[in-house]
Write a structure and sequence with these properties.
Elements (H helix, E strand, L loop, with lengths): L1 E5 L3 E8 L1 H5 L22 H4 L12 H10 L4 E6 L2 E6 L5 E4 L9 E2 L11 E6 L5 E8 L2 E4 L7 H11 L1 H15 L1 H16 L49 H8 L1 H50 L10
């Protein structure tokens, strides 16, 4: 369970699990829309709702994580604010979770893509297999990071990013490289394989589609007078620049490679800035709670102290 102690909203909790885990605590857990009952009156989703997922540990291999993800039922999300359910979501994906909603009409909803910046909301980052990696509370300009649960992949990632600022920037940068992987494969790996494969000379028959000539109307040409402006000739500077290497020219021509890398670097820098803002915001919350507690204790002490009495006049 991912938790965050907010000074005004209380404890914000983000729970992840399958339907069977939530049904064990809440018998009114909503039914997915696609799990409607059959003709015989038997709910089609009973089998899926009764399944409990077997999750892979943080040190599991990619193959094991993929196997668990394929065999497990859908991983739901539930958001609680100060003990009250504020949202239920169908799956764990990247997106924004609003903290507003009517608890009496809660249903399984999709993770939204955008929410008003001024309203309190959660921004989550999940892996390809639906594993929570990072959760942030945002409201206007305030940013605060959730504490990941012990033994989760999110905690392992959080500890790695806490160890150095380089890793905090490198993780999103690696994500950008992953997005550019298909372009690198297309431009580097396939040409190398083409050199290793034998050169087969195969002549395919030429196919020419029929040409259809349609009549085209000839419009009259109207020539209007055009003013003649004086021409100004500026001196041209000729600077001999060194030739760029071939690999750099290729990278500049194919923006599918460097754009994701540049985007990943930008996300990494923003993540580092948000982490510093989160630490400052949490420190401000702690100071606010300490000041409120001190004022409460002072008021309590003043109200319990005996009042001084003046002697009565004769």
């Amino acid at each position: 369970m991912w938790t965050l102690h907010h000074p005004d909203l209380g404890v914000i909790e983000l729970e992840q699990g399958c339907d069977a885990e939530f049904l064990a605590r809440d018998p009114e857990w909503p039914l997915e829309d696609s799990w409607a009952g059959g003709d015989d009156g038997t709910p089609a989703g009973d089998r899926e709702r009764s399944r409990v997922g077997e999750h892979a540990g943080p040190d599991a291999s990619f193959r094991e994580r993929f196997t668990r993800w394929r065999q497990n039922p859908p991983q739901r999300l539930q958001v609680r604010v100060d003990g009250q359910v504020r949202g239920r979501f169908k799956a764990t994906t990247n997106g924004v979770l609003p903290l507003k909603g009517a608890p009496a009409a809660l249903k399984l909803a999709d993770v939204t893509g955008s929410v008003a910046r001024e309203k309190p909301h959660l921004r989550i980052q999940a892996s390809l297999f639906g594993e929570l990696l990072q959760v942030e509370f945002r409201e206007a300009g305030a940013v605060a990071e959730f504490d990941p649960p012990a033994g989760s992949r999110g905690e392992r990632r959080h500890q790695a990013m806490e160890s150095s600022s380089v890793k905090r920037v490198a993780y999103p940068l690696l994500g950008g490289l992953g997005k550019a992987g298909w372009a690198i494969l297309l431009l580097v790996v396939i040409p190398l394989l083409g050199r290793l494969l034998p050169d087969w000379d195969v002549e395919l028959p030429a196919f020419r589609p029929p040409r259809i000539h349609l009549p085209v109307p000839v419009w009259p040409r109207i020539e209007l007078p055009v003013p003649v402006y004086p021409q100004i000739h500026l001196p041209v500077l000729h600077v001999d620049l060194p030739a760029l290497p071939a690999w750099l020219i290729t990278v500049l021509e194919y923006d599918q490679i460097w754009k994701p890398i540049l985007f990943g670097l930008g996300v990494g820098l923003v993540s580092l800035r948000n982490h510093r803002r989160s630490e400052a915001e949490k420190a401000r919350w702690v100071q606010t709670l300490a000041d409120t507690k001190m004022k409460t204790e002072e008021k309590s002490a003043q109200s319990s102290s005996p009042q001084s009495t003046r002697p009565a006049r004769p």
